[in-house]
């Protein structure tokens, strides 16, 4: 078995070293080990056989054509910042690294559209759009390090989703290479369009299992004239969650509503020398944008005042940045404390406080440390399990807690992945959410794209 | 051939009359003829063999289970208001009429979600949501007569799309029955969620070829506090189109920008006794909404003033309704003049004026009458061919003009269907837009859902 696979892989490496420039192919464990895992904290067995550093779509086509013919699994990879093991690549796989394809091919301020290669770092696109008073509205917390291709592969959410939608809502069209090396263009450069099945939406969030993205046509939107920020502290996280429900009931549509629990605030304080935890057991950061941002933020503050222990409002961007720093530094602050396992459930917005109470009970039941932050305006919670930093494998109690969190999310009418994808980590629970009929149908769709099942096997579908 | 088909259909009718309540099944040409065509102006050959008036999902399952086993084509149908022949059903087909499934099953103001049956009239849902200060944001011009199920089947656009998205952006989840009668639930009740392939998006716009919708979970949004309306007249339609591009360049995001050409204004005048045509060769109706609506409308008016012959602004809803009436009555006004063939191209927003010039040239070249209106903010144009009312078949010149319009749209970077779907009318051009590889892949996806190809054959895919 090992011999057969090895011969197949040798045939592939021979073909690739013949057909690709020398600097596009890395082999040997030292070179490939850094490409074995993403940022999820999980690791596959072994290292990939090889890494192809594609510099253009032709390299992608060549790699897939040979891999398809020889039935060798290929794992597409952007910056490797994923949090679900979607880019994990162990023994027997070839990694297709797209990070060198990092050009902005077109940025059209008249059509408010950008065409980019998959390896463009998300914040770079946003910065380039900013020169025309535009922005790429999805704002993943990882924007400074993640790539557009990875954002599309996971249909990444972010801080501004409740008002502006997730990555899918900004993707108008895709250039992809199918599993057998065939290039295909989906979608359009127009705002609207409904010709045929929406393969652009189907590919978005497919985690590299249906095709490899070589370019994306993205919608840009005007940068709002004004942004106003509210910081509100609460005694408990559940009270903060209930306050966000009250904002929804008041029919406010904030562009951001980030909620952090007390343990997260304490971790940020430890890492940054701030003094947030002493001010409350939870912090809600609310932003409103547009020409009425100040009015809307004041309305939000009125709703919060009866519920929070303190409420501050600002329309000074520097002051807002200072407030947002706590949120942006939350994950690195937790990573200092131990090995993190980041969950990513979404629940109906009215169930946010109920989900918080469930998570607290689950942490006590399994005696694990869970820190929680939430994109509260769209009901997306990140319970983050922090494990012993020296633990070599994820302990059973952590898996059980994760399973209980997913079960609770489904019971509350929610979903087990809000924005990070299924990847390798959550695959065991996938059929629980989809049900057997939909799971079987999704497998048939996978086969329609990738009959030999070479694209990122063992992830998502 | 006819005998074989007839025996198969007899077997199906026997099974359906045994398994369905008597009032759910209509047969005979008098009863079925009204279900042969939609509002597109096209007609199939003959009438459907039978019409099933489904009252619940079980009736849908029963119908599909038998039709699948006997390989009889089934054409799902809502209100029959489609404009592309997507619900056309000729000899040999059975129509699955969903208009009796018209209940709003749930309307949750806390989660801002509605769960509805497919036969709910879109305006009814919007009215029900309005009791909670919410609305169903997609606003097809046909909202008063079309159903939610039909809107989803075509991924209908509407007047507020540029700011609030199309139907797809409001659909969170679907209950569908697959071709073989298997029920399946896709999507979620949460704002975010990315578990598995996005079948909700794939089914939206699939024109009844992948499954039959029995319920939809829809996102509602708050009704804006204020709406402000601007009416601007231009000498020519192209000048109006250029003015809309100038609004985009000024980074305004209107909730509506409807543009009507001079011949449409004259037709409305004839039908309604108004006096619009004398005021200009084109009318732009612009709306801004939200707490800064007045400010934004004034900014829009400033951009327009140098370009338009007259500009009027109002934040009085009654006055705005009066202005919008011209737009809403445009199609009925044209239907008085002859048999209409409604095209539905979308182009990049910067190409709107170029598309208008192409359409004018095409009308002259083929000597056909073309009236044009546009959802200008998202580049969606409706060139409407008005033919002799007594013409029994669509003349070659009209088909050639339609073909030239599609070719022009593709050349300008656009798409041949903006919001009405492909249906029966535009199927001959589908492969031109998709290309052979994507067309083949879409057929494999179709086969994954509907292996016997019974669902709405001859439409879309």
Automatic annotation (TrEMBL), chains A, B:
Keywords: FAD, Flavoprotein, Oxidoreductase. It holds the Pfam family FAD-oxidase_C. Residues 44-223 form the FAD-binding PCMH-type domain. The keyword Oxidoreductase applies. Its cofactor is FAD. This is FAD-linked oxidase C-terminal domain-containing protein. It comes from Streptomyces coeruleofuscus.
């Amino acid at each position: 078995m090992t011999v057969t696979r090895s011969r197949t892989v040798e045939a592939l490496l021979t073909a690739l070293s013949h057909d690709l420039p020398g600097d596009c192919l890395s082999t040997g464990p030292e070179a490939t080990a850094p490409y074995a895992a993403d940022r999820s904290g999980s690791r596959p067995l072994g290292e990939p056989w090889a890494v192809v550093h594609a510099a253009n779509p032709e390299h992608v086509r060549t790699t897939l054509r040979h891999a398809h013919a020889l039935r060798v699994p290929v794992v597409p990879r952007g910056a490797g910042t994923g949090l679900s093991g979607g880019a994990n690549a162990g023994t027997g796989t070839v990694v297709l690294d797209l990070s060198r394809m990092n050009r902005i091919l077109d940025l059209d301020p008249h059509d408010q559209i950008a065409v980019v290669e998959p390896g463009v770092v998300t914040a770079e696109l946003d910065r380039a759009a900013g020169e025309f008073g535009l922005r790429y509205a999805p704002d993943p917390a990882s924007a400074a390090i993640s790539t557009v291709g990875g954002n599309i592969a996971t249909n990444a959410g972010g801080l501004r989703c409740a008002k502006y939608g997730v990555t899918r809502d900004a993707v108008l069209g895709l250039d992809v290479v199918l599993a057998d090396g065939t290039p295909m263009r989906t979608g359009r450069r127009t705002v609207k369009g409904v010709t045929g099945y929406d393969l652009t939406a189907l590919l978005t969030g497919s985690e590299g299992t249906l095709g490899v993205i070589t370019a994306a046509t993205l919608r840009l939107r005007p940068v709002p004239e004004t942004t106003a920020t509210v910081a509100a502290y609460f005694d408990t996280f559940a009270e903060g969650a209930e306050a966000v429900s009250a904002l929804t009931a008041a029919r406010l549509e904030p562009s951001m509503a980030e909620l952090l629990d007390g343990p997260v605030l304490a971790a940020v304080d430890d890492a940054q020398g701030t003094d947030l935890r002493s001010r409350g057991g939870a912090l809600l950061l609310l932003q409103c944008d547009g020409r009425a941002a100040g009015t809307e933020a004041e309305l939000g503050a009125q709703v919060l005042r009866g519920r929070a222990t303190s409420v501050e409002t600002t329309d000074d961007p520097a002051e807002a940045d200072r407030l947002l720093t706590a949120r942006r530094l939350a994950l690195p602050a937790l990573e200092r404390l131990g090995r993190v396992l980041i969950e990513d459930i979404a629940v109906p917005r009215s169930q946010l406080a109920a989900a918080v109470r469930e998570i607290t009970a689950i942490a006590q039941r399994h005696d694990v440390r869970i820190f929680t932050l939430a994109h509260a305006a769209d009901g997306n919670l990140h319970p983050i399990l922090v494990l012993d930093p020296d633990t070599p494998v994820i302990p059973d109690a952590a898996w059980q807690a994760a399973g209980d969190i997913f079960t609770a999310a489904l019971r509350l009418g929610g979903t087990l992945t809000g924005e990070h994808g299924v990847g390798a980590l959550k695959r065991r629970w996938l059929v629980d959410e989809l049900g057997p009929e939909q799971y079987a149908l999704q497998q048939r769709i996978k086969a329609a794209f990738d009959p030999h099942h070479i694209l990122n096997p063992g992830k998502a579908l």
